Every structure is written in C-alpha cells, then in structure tokens.
C-alpha cells in the first residue's frame, strides 16, 4: 500500500482531518507538465478549486486513489481544469475518492476512507465516489470542486454532505484528461455550497457552449445550439413549469423522513406556482441492474491498460514477462472493489454470458431512455428521436406501459433512499446492498440526462433524525439557513 501522501497545499483550513485531500509534490509534477497555463479571460473572477484525483492537473499527481497509479504525474492537464483556470480558478488540491470512481462511500481508496464532517465523530459516509470533493466544499477549503459522475458519484456525496452536486448532460463538459471508468456514462460536474456559483460557471460564463475537439464524445456545436434554442436557461416563472413526481421512486426502502422531505419539497414548489404531475418511469426498477452490468463491462475494458507496461507499477517480478508481470502489477496495484468490477465485466462480456447480461442490459438502457422521452416536454437533444424506435420494447419484455403524455419540464426525486450510513455499517454491508444507494441516481446516467442534487434541509438535521420513524417536517424546504 502506498504511504499516505501529504497534502500539497497549505491553504486548506481543515488540515485534512476528514481525509478529503490527497496530494503530492507540486514541484515534481509541475516540471513534467507540458500544458501551458491558460490565459485569464476578461470576465475571470478568482475562486479556489478542488479537483477529484481522477482528473488530470498540471501541478499534482493524478492517481485515481489507486496504488497502481501511485505518483503518476499527468503529462497534460484536463480541458475542464484549463477552462476553469481561465475563469479564475486556483487549484488547491486533489481530492480523495473511490478507486477509479468505483463505489458509493469514498472508502475504496488507497488513502483510506473520506469522513463526513457533518457527523460529530466523522465516522459517517461522505458518499462516493466524489466524497473528497464534496467535503472540500463543505468545509470551505474550496469554493468549487470538480467531481465525476458515472452513476451518481457527484449527486450522492452532495446529498450525504448537504452540498449541491451537478451532473451535466453526457458530453456537455469535456472528459479530455479525465481517467475513464465507463465511457458511455462518465460525466464531469461541479460541487459547491450553493446553486449560484455552479449556475454562474456553467451558464453565465458560457461553459455549456464549449465543444472540445480533443474529446470525441464532446457535444457538437450544432447539438449545443439545438439545446439552447429549445430551452431557456432563465425560466420565466414557476407557473409555466410542470414537475413530474415518478411514482416508482416511492420504494419501500425509502426512509420515511426522506419521503416526507420529498413531499414537502414538492408541496413547496406547488405553492410557488408549479404544477405537479404524477409520472411513471416503469423501467426504473431495472435500471440499477443494467447499470451494474454495463459499468463494470466498460471498466474491465478501460482498465486493461494498467498492466505494468503501458501504465502501472512494477512489483518484484518486474523483470518477468507476460502473465507474471501483469498479474503482479494488477494483483498488487488494484483494490478489492476494482478487481470485483473487472471480474464482473470480463464475465458479462464473455461469449457465454454476453447475450444474457450485456445485451439485455443495453436493451434496458434504451427502455430507461425511452421512459424519460415519454414524459419530458423537450426531446432529448443527445440523439435524434427516430434513432430509437422502441415502442414495442415494453411488449417484448412483458412490462406494463403506464407512461403518460409528454408534459414534464423537471422530475423531482430524492437523491438517495437513506441517510448516510455509518462507515462500520458500510463495511459490514454486502456488495449488492452497497449498490442499492445508487437506485435513484443511475437512471439519469443511463439516459445521459443532467441532474442536480440540492439539499432541502441542513444536513445536520437529517443526521439527527436518522433512525427515527416518520417525522412531519415543516414545509420550509426552500430555506438556506446556516447548518451551524
Ligand atoms: N456508485 C456507482 C459505482 O460504483 C457510481 C460511481 C460513479 O458515478 N463514479 O459505479
């Protein structure tokens, strides 16, 4: 196991008590970078930025919280870091995470678990995999933090720490310089203590318009234009807005007080003039299973390059060739969860299992996309609707088609079904139970849709009432009073 590295910056007030920063030697990394610093834009405003450890920076190592990349300096900087530096960002540190983004609690890290500052003893999950980024903004160590979200990794830590976590549409923010986990799902997004700084960066500074020719999945100019034309970033007033409440999200595992908060949030929006519309997204039930087939399949392919030759560490048998070299590098370099995903993915892509797992999961993914298309007013700008004629899919799978007419502007749902669990509870959990935390976040990922997690109550309040029975919450979910 790599020794825990020191935080590279001295500007962080919380001194890494919550193990949210990882770092390295600023000077070594600087000298290896070939990325010139971007020139400041005229509208640049200074702000501090924490960067998840799977996003390449010029000045710090990029290790994905993995032993296999220990001390890996990136030869270039991610486009998004350059874009933010041009807008005034100063990078204050790299943040701890689940290794290669695989996990929901930021515990699968070579640096140890991230701790949630909302709990008195810190022994509560900060959510994952971008837990370090969420904690960095929560503690005020950074104004903005960059995270990645493949199936919920920005939104879940935001929910568990009481911060705002925004995952853009697939392809909107460049992934150039971001270490891939599952390419067809990976997105880069932002965390902050409030909506405004995120809104300002994305919309006011025009980040959403910038195509990156270095990222083949970056949305083309024409698609971006189509998006802007079909939607107005500044909505006139809530009375013209329909908000969908997906009935399938009211699952039995949902904690009663989270259900109450969901109802209270909906009631608040209704009192401000929005129309609430019950909607059905019937494929939601299958989305989690499909995600946990597709994401490991893509991961098993992506992680093949960490073989001790192209990337990765060399062990004692470094002079050996072939299998010994690979198995030593991968056996000692990857953590348990990453190995589990590689095995899962390799199996579901094998010729004996492909039809039953990978192909089925792709079909479910299309159904999830189609569910959203049926309820949203706007077309999904990421693809032409006629590309997917799946009207007979529900019939083919025997699933009931209960979807309503096209009518909704937004969908409102809880981000997670439970409060953040204690770290010892998580450690005792089965793998499948741990995957359950993502049940509400993966559908948007499978469909490539944008999503944002916003706290409805100071998170300390939630922590205090966890494990209690249903509590009738006052309907003041719009308030932003200080948690302290
Ligand atoms: N928890 C999910 C997983 O482990 C999502 C991770 C992510 O979004 N990077 O795959």
UniProtKB/TrEMBL annotation:
Stored SUPFAM superfamilies: Amidase signature (AS) enzymes
Q: Which UniProt keywords apply?
A: ATP-binding, Ligase, Mitochondrion, Nucleotide-binding, Protein biosynthesis
GO BP field: glutaminyl-tRNAGln biosynthesis via transamidation; mitochondrial translation
GO cellular component term of the entry, any:
glutamyl-tRNA(Gln) amidotransferase complex
* Compartment(s) of residence: Mitochondrion
Q: Name the EC number(s).
A: 6.3.5.7
Residues the record marks as active site? 52 (charge relay system), 129 (charge relay system), 153 (acyl-ester intermediate)
Substrates-to-products reaction catalysed: L-glutamyl-tRNA(Gln) + L-glutamine + ATP + H2O = L-glutaminyl-tRNA(Gln) + L-glutamate + ADP + phosphate + H(+)
One annotated GO molecular function? ATP binding
Gene3D superfamilies listed in its UniProt record = Amidase signature (AS) domain (3.90.1300.10)
Q: Where is the signal peptide?
A: none
Report the enzyme's class at the first EC level.
ligase
Q: Where is the Amidase domain?
A: 49-457
Q: Where is this region: Disordered?
A: 23-43, 212-233
Give the main location.
Answer: mitochondrion
Q: What does this protein do?
A: Allows the formation of correctly charged Gln-tRNA(Gln) through the transamidation of misacylated Glu-tRNA(Gln) in the mitochondria. The reaction takes place in the presence of glutamine and ATP through an activated gamma-phospho-Glu-tRNA(Gln).
HAMAP family, A to Z: GatA (MF_00120)
Could you describe the subunit structure of this protein?
Subunit of the heterotrimeric GatCAB amidotransferase (AdT) complex, composed of A, B and C subunits.
Q: Which family does it belong to?
A: Belongs to the amidase family. GatA subfamily.
The protein depicted here goes by the name Glutamyl-tRNA(Gln) amidotransferase subunit A, mitochondrial
According to its UniProt entry, this protein's organism is Cylindrodendrum hubeiense
């Amino acid at each position: 196991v790599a020794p825990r590295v020191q935080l590279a910056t001295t500007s962080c007030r919380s001194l890494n008590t919550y193990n949210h920063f990882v770092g390295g030697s600023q000077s070594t990394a600087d000298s290896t970078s070939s990325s010139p610093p971007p020139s400041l834009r005229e509208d640049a405003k200074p702000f501090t930025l924490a960067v998840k450890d799977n996003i390449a920076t010029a000045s710090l190592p990029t290790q994905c919280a993995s032993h296999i990349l220990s001390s890996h300096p990136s030869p270039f900087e991610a486009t998004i870091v350059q874009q933010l530096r041009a807008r005034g960002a100063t990078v204050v540190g790299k943040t701890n995470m689940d290794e290669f983004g695989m996990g929901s609690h930021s515990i699968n890290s070579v640096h140890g678990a991230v701790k949630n500052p909302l709990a008195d003893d810190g022994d509560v999950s900060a959510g994952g995999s971008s837990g370090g980024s969420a904690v960095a903004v929560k503690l005020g160590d950074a104004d903005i933090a960059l995270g990645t979200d493949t199936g919920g990794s920005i939104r879940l830590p935001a929910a568990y720490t009481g911060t705002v976590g925004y995952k853009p549409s697939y392809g909107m923010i460049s992934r150039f310089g971001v270490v891939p986990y599952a390419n067809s799902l990976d997105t880069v997004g932002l965390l902050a203590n409030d909506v405004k700084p995120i809104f300002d960066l994305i919309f006011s500074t025009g980040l959403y318009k910038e195509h990156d020719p270095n990222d083949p999945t970056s949305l083309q100019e024409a698609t971006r234009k189509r998006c802007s034309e079909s939607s107005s970033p500044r909505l006139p007033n809530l009375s013209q807005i329909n908000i969908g409440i997906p009935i399938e999200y009211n699952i039995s595992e949902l904690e009663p007080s989270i259900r109450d908060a969901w109802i209270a949030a909906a009631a608040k929006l209704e009192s401000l003039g929005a129309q609430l519309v019950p909607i059905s997204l019937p494929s939601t039930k299958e989305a989690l299973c499909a995600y946990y087939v597709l994401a490991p399949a893509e991961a098993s392919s992506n992680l093949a390059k960490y073989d001790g030759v192209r990337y990765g560490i060399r062990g004692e048998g470094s002079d050996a060739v072939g299998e010994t070299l690979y198995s030593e590098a991968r056996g000692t370099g990857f953590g348990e969860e990453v190995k589990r995903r590689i095995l899962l993915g390799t199996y579901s892509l094998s010729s004996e299992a492909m039809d039953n797992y990978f192909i089925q999961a792709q079909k479910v993914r299309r159904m999830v996309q189609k569910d959203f298309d049926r309820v949203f007013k706007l077309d999904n700008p990421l693809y032409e609707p006629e590309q997917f004629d799946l009207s007979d899919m529900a019939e083919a799978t025997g699933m009931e088609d209960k979807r309503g007419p096209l009518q909704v502007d937004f969908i409102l749902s809880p981000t997670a079904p439970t409060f953040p669990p204690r770290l010892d509870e998580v450690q005792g959990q089965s793998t499948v139970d741990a995957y359950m935390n993502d049940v509400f976040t993966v559908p948007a990922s499978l469909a490539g849709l944008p999503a944002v997690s916003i706290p409805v109550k100071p998170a300390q309040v939630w922590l205090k009432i966890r494990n209690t029975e249903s509590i009738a919450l006052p309907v003041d979910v719009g308030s932003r009073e200080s948690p302290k």
